[in-house]
Write a structure and sequence with these properties.
Distance between the termini: 78 Å
Strand order of the largest sheet: 1-2-3-4-5-6-7-8
Order of helices and strands: EHHEHHEHEHEHEHEHEHHHHHHHHHHHH
Radius of gyration: 22 Å
Number of strands: 8
Strand content: 5-15%
Number of helices: 21
Shape: globular
Structural class: alpha/beta
Length: about 475
């Protein structure tokens, strides 16, 4: 019998970003990360995801930390491992599109401060909203000596999302100049045999490496990874066991054990992984005791598969109904979501499209008349300000919600009329600027960043903010 050909699967570890974003609302502070970096660096991970997504906002808003400082500290610690981040295309890490000069500046600073792989996605899979970020990564790869662009396709179900659609997208991503492709299954909708079929199709249509990202929400994720790896996927996203499962990813150690002794063997040391798990376990207990980690997010939520609604969107919807004392309308809203999604061109449900569709469905049910009232964001989605949807939108809904209004067919930054924003942003916040990166923090979250800059200044000058007269900006020294 001939020697089997080894094709070890890579694992990207998510505990420093998506795992704690999913389970404890992105509240893990940098000081919890640093003591374990040395051990994590010895595993041989394909990459460690540690930045982007909601970490930036949460660092400034809740942890009173500079996210750039976190990145630099992690880069100092990880000598042998690639660091990865998540980037929302033209929206960067914020909630609106930015001009290209902001996108370029952010990509450059991310790479300069230590990021190797930038995973870029768009909530509508509109590739035009990803081009600037890919171009910027390719540009700075040359000058900074590192930087890879990975384009993530937001995986979803629906009439438009055929294997031909995904194959076509993969070809276009390769033409864009990206380095790899990620299937980003944010809602845990990808089931095992469909995953095998999808990976096989992508592999037949592109030479780029394929990475798979999913969440355990619907309970099938480990099996999905197994079938995807057999079909040739190159890297899977996993979380060390204390921060795995539930709305997070499958457990790293379980997947390592699964492929042990096969052609896909990762070669990772289980004893080393056990030490990393031991480090995070007391913190997990602490999070459960404090209520930061809710046991609600740790189980299997099969409604995700039935209604194709991501876990975060479900909890958002429940709280909106609670506020209106209308919890009895839960089922009605669940059934309304797919109808609203169809009306606005069947977009994938991921930030911010998931919030826009979910909130509109709640309004439609509570008002007793569909589209009697529409949010500003829903109107912007219909206007084309977020970009192009895969299917055309419902003309009757357009006529009811934005009658006679101009609609945009250009990419989001152009539709918003954005050109060169950096100088203006810098002028607005110059009194707080201590590093070039501060301008970018301000660009993404003007109010939150300003509050953080004031806090930072007070710490540096040893001022007690709790005794301050913040209305008049006076603080006792």
């Amino acid at each position: 019998m001939s020697e089997q050909v080894k094709k070890p699967v890579g694992i990207m570890e998510t505990v420093l970003r998506d795992a704690h974003q999913s389970l404890i609302a992105t509240r893990m502070p940098t000081e919890k990360m640093l003591p374990i970096v040395d051990k994590m660096d010895k595993v041989g991970y394909a990459a460690v995801e540690c930045w982007g997504g909601a970490t930036f906002d949460a660092s400034l808003r809740f942890l009173k930390e500079d996210p750039w400082d976190r990145l630099r500290k992690l880069r100092d610690g990880f000598k042998n491992t690639k660091l990865q981040m998540l980037f929302r295309g033209q929206n960067i890490l914020g909630y609106r599109p930015y001009a290209d000069d902001v996108v370029y500046a952010f990509v450059q600073k991310s790479i300069a401060n230590g990021i190797d792989v930038i995973r870029i996605f768009d909530c509508l899979n509109d590739l035009r909203n990803l081009q600037a970020a890919v171009d910027a990564t390719n540009k700075f790869k040359v000058s900074e000596g590192r930087g890879e662009s990975q384009v993530a396709l937001s995986y979803t179900l629906g009439d438009a999302y055929t294997l031909e659609y995904w194959a076509d997208m993969a070809k276009k991503i390769e033409e864009m100049g990206a380095d790899s492709i990620c299937i980003k299954d944010m809602a845990g909708l990808l089931v095992p045999y469909k995953a095998a079929e999808l990976v096989k199709t992508l592999k037949e249509n592109t030479k780029l490496p394929i990475q798979l990202h999913t969440h355990y929400t619907s309970g099938v994720a480990s099996m999905t990874y197994l079938k995807a790896v057999e079909a040739g996927v190159d890297i899977i996203d996993c979380a060390i066991s204390p921060f795995a499962l539930g709305t997070s990813q499958p457990a790293t150690e379980v997947m390592v054990e699964t492929f042990k002794g096969t052609e896909y063997d990762t070669g990772y040391d289980q004893n080393l992984l056990a030490e990393i798990a031991d480090y995070f376990r007391p913190y997990r207990e602490e999070c459960i005791d404090s209520g930061l980690m809710s046991t609600k997010v740790l189980g299997v939520n099969i409604k995700t598969l039935l209604y194709q609604v991501p876990g975060g969107m479900l909890s958002n919807m429940v709280s909106q109904l609670k506020e209106q004392k209308a919890e009895d309308k839960y089922q009605d809203v669940l059934e309304e979501i797919p109808r609203v999604r169809k009306d606005c061109g069947e977009p994938p449900l991921v930030t911010p499209s998931s919030q826009i569709v979910g909130t509109q469905a709640v309004f439609n049910v509570l008002m007793g008349e569909r589209y009697k009232m529409a949010t500003g964001e829903f109107k912007d989605l219909l206007r084309g300000k977020y970009g192009q949807t895969v299917k055309p939108m419902n003309q009757e809904v357009i006529d009811k919600v934005i009658p006679g209004e101009e609609r945009f067919t250009s990419r989001s930054a152009d539709a918003a009329g954005l050109t060169n924003e950096m100088d203006k942003l810098e002028a607005e916040m110059k009194e707080y600027k201590q590093q070039d990166e501060d301008v970018l923090s301000y660009a993404l979250f003007p109010q939150v960043a300003t509050d953080f800059f004031k806090y930072r200044q007070a710490q540096q000058e040893k001022i007690d903010l709790t005794k301050g007269d913040s209305a008049n900006g006076a603080y006792p020294v």
